[in-house]
Fold:
Amino acid sequence: MDITEKYAQRIAEATPLQLVIILHELIIEYINDGASKSDIDKACSFLGELFSSLNMDMPIAEDLANLFLFVNRLLIRAKLTRKDDEKNQLLADGRKIISGLLNSWEELEKNDDLENTIFNNPQQIFAGLTYEKGGKLSEFLDDDPNRGYKV
Structure:
């Protein structure tokens, strides 16, 4: 079974924070399996996803971007080296950095009041379609720009 297949159900049900955690876990799994160049390429691909999803308006984003770029360079060097000892050390260094970030995200997820501290009176979101008599689709458009969030 492919690594990403193991995560399919979790990904489908994940919150944005859980998706970040899953991406870190996938990077670590592919680094652990880093014997092949394709595994390293997949780890780099997931690093790219994390990098591209950064909100650069946030103060910590630049630091995270630099860490992602550094780990990416380690992985590329590991992919290109022919020395097994050097490759293993580069992969271990990359895994250590991503594992530290993963631990931080997991601690953040444990904070049950996270949503309440970020949002004041968050709106409940319900997904689905409503049909009127005769099978006509009834849609509702909420023009309130606040939508219940007060950040």
